[in-house]
Amino acid sequence: MDEQEAARTLDMMRATRGVLATRTRWSLARHAAVGVLLGSLIAGYALPGSWPVVVVMVCLAATVMTVARDRRRDGFFVNGYRIGRTRRITFTLVAIAFAALVSAILLKERYGLDWAPVAIGIVLAVVATIVSIVWERVYRQELKEPGRER
C-alpha cells in the first residue's frame, strides 16, 4: 500500500466514523430503558420470597430484547465495555449499581427497611438514565475525533 492509498483509506475511515457518529443517537426512551432496567434490578429486592429472582429474569429478558431492537433498528449494538473513554463510564455505572444493590440489601435485611430497595432503585434509574446519555455523547465524540478513544 503506497502513501496515497493509505491516505485515501484513512479519509474513507474518517468519513465512515462521521456517518456512524450521526446515526448513533438514541431516544430519551432508550436511555430511560437502561435506567428502568437497572433500577428495577435493585427495586425488585423489596419483593418477598423468590420474586426478586423473577424480576432479575424479566430484566435479563428485557435486556436481550433491547439489544435485538437496537440491532434491528440501527443495524448494530454498541457494547458498553468497548475500549475507550466510554469503558470508564460503564465501569463507573457498574460500581454505582453494585453499591446500590449492596445498600438496598443491607438496609432491608439488617435494618428492616423494606422500602429501601424501591427508593434506591428509583434513584439508580435516574442516575443510569443520565449516565446513558453521557455515555452516548462521549461515544459520538470518540467517533468524530479519532485518537480520543483513550
UniProtKB/TrEMBL annotation:
Spans through the membrane: 27-45, 51-68, 89-107, 113-135
Domain of life: Bacteria
Protein name per UniProt: Uncharacterized protein
Source organism (scientific name): Sphingomonas gellani
Alphabetically ordered keywords of this record: Membrane, Transmembrane, Transmembrane helix
